[in-house]
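Exercise 7b. Backbone tokens:
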């Protein structure tokens, strides 16, 4: 089996390529030329950015596919003792795909977008662009492994990494090593923006991979779907019914409390003064739950707020956010200890007044 150190080296090389490309893109988006062009004519700014991103996906996507091909061959030689079926690097994404992604990044996420401050609009566009560009640069590497595995008649797997993995990725990763087919290629080659999942080859009768346990991932996937499908009233899932948290009308409340919510698009906004943060899942993960909070998240929480690993729990509910002076209803997730003070709040998804009223 490939060593953890060898796999880490490959991950580091991939991250270096993606980070360098996104660094160039971020500098373009922060340049006086782009800001002036966007302020005057957003459509012209989008057209100029399409050309910029095309050049980056051509160059860095090509580098990723070459790296993945070399990695595939290295794994093959390490496991089988010789190179039998050399990898074929996949082509970078098409310019048509780049154009679609950039145009989507410049599209308005909601009807209020035109009223946002210029700084906020640029943050949203930048977050969407760097996420989609990273995905498009990774795509040739992922395709190289899948296509080469199919030609070599060996299996491959989807291996998650990073602090958080979505349910869709957990489901695919829990399948273990599979043979290439139209069905598996269609499913396993679907990735979202900011997805850190890797495609890795599996040579031999019983392929193994450092730190990869599909059975454990399947248990995490099953645990993540409990509650929603159980027919339990949302306000009573995973524990007792909780009183809503009243958001002070003046100021942020106690100095130790931060009611700012991360929108995950480059912006942080406050909960609406005078409204309530209504808990629907008081023990979703961590203390009082069979689900675990990721180690990296726990380390960060303890570093910032104290406590120990057994004290923290993940909670979520419904709240009203103040976005550009207006009310927006959202499902909000956060972390807390027994003091029930919300920490590190973030928006999971937008919802409706009806969702809020029923919680």
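Sequence design result:
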């Amino acid at each position: 089996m490939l060593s953890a150190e060898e796999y880490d080296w490959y991950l580091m090389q991939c991250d270096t390529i993606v980070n360098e490309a996104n660094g160039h893109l971020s500098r373009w988006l922060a340049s006086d030329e782009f800001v002036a062009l966007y302020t005057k004519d957003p459509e012209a700014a989008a057209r100029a950015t399409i050309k910029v991103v095309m050049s980056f996906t051509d160059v860095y996507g090509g580098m990723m596919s070459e790296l993945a091909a070399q990695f595939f061959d290295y794994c093959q030689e390490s496991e089988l003792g010789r190179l039998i079926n050399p990898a074929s690097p996949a082509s970078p994404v098409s310019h048509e795909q780049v154009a679609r992604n950039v145009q989507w990044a410049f599209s308005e996420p909601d009807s209020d977008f035109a009223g946002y401050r210029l700084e906020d609009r640029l943050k949203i566009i930048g977050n969407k662009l760097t996420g989609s560009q990273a995905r498009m640069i990774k795509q040739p590497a992922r395709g190289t492994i899948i296509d080469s595995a199919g030609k070599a008649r060996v299996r491959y797997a989807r291996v998650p990494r990073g602090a958080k993995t979505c349910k869709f990725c957990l489901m695919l990763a829990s399948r273990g090593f599979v043979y290439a087919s139209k069905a598996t290629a269609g499913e396993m080659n679907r990735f979202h923006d900011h997805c850190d999942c890797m495609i890795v080859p599996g040579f031999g009768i019983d392929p193994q991979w450092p730190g990869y346990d599909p059975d454990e991932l399947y248990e995490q996937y099953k645990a993540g779907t409990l509650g929603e499908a159980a027919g339990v009233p949302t306000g009573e899932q995973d524990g007792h019914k909780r009183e809503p948290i009243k958001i002070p009308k003046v100021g942020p409340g106690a100095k130790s409390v931060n009611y700012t919510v991360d929108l995950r698009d480059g912006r942080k906004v406050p909960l609406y003064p005078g409204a309530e943060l209504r808990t629907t899942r008081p023990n979703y993960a961590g203390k009082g739950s069979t689900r675990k909070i990721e180690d990296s998240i726990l380390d960060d929480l303890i570093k910032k707020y104290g406590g120990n690993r057994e004290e923290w729990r993940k909670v979520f509910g419904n709240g009203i956010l103040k976005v550009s002076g207006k009310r927006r209803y959202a499902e909000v997730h956060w972390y807390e200890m027994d003091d029930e003070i919300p920490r590190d709040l973030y928006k999971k998804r937008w919802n409706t007044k009806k969702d809020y009223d029923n919680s």
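Instructor comment: The chain has two domains: 4-221, 234-357. The first helix runs from residue 4 to 30.
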